Amino acid sequence: MNLGFSGKVIKAAEQYPDLFLGRVIAQYKDLYKVASEKTELLAEITGKLRYASEDMTDYPAVGDFVLMDREEEASGNAIIHQILPRKSMFVRRAAGTAHDVQVVAANIDTVFICMSLNNDFNLRRLERYLSIAWDSGAVPVVVLTKADLCQDLPERLLEVGRIALGSDVLVTSSMTADGYKDILKYIVPGKTVAFIGSSGVGKSTLINRLIGEDLIATQGLRSDDKGKHTTTRRELLLIPGGGAVIDTPGMRELGLESADLSRSFADIDELTNSCRFKDCRHENEPGCAVRQAIEEGLIDEARLQNYKKLQKEARYESLNSRQIEKEKIDEMFSEFGGIKNARNYAKSKNKRK
Q: C-alpha distances in angstroms, 343 versus 93, 105, 292, 350?
């Protein structure tokens, strides 16, 4: 089976000649299903690895290349001793915690961002997913699904092209047998892909077509434009002819714990360098290159506002309520150098009265 054991991965594994190379293909509560070139078996992490872990990102995740002590289950579960360096990873906040994040999928080469061309179409959500995808280390590809239901396809493609900078944009229809064939050129032996996007936009249907059977339950959009979550476990599935796809419920719950706004908003980021003031907020400051671009119709006002929104969200995402409140107060009084200086300024004004 082709599990993506590239030359780089094999070379890294050779540093541990007494251990066996495998890849995590499914994750349960405290157990992992690991596939090697010979077999599949259940595994658990060694106590040393658990003790040395500083946070949940140090634990194995679906897609990880790991080194274990055996390739057979005759004497119990295999023991994972080492996680090889990841080339990409998607993270989300761990359930029940304010700060801890966990890896939900690792070593993905291409991530397909799926968005329906009917009721689910949302450019602001696409900007969010692009920010997360670029930061992960994977290459994002925008997949516009349900093209057969779109009445103004050229206009939609123009809108997406303005914000999906540096990403390929594909148009598919899960309602036809050949609606997904453009995706196949990204599915090559040794490469791993994943799908993110709102539930009900066609991700599960596309995955089923890729693997050649209905392994993943599907559910369309409801009348309120929201889909029902259908993926219930994390797993890596091999695609006939080569390649693999990771399907995990965690991919649909990604927050902005980690995001690369400089890539997803490269146009705004580049214009910022031309603003007169280095700390320009792109509001009413003179010489603002971003405001000028908006006035000239080169950038949409809604795009700028979403950029600011995601900047704040990325900054606040890992903070508790008290820390968020402090950040907001500091921002409110930033022109005074913080709330303490603002109080001193107010006192000095009262004395002069």
A: 36, 48, 36, 11
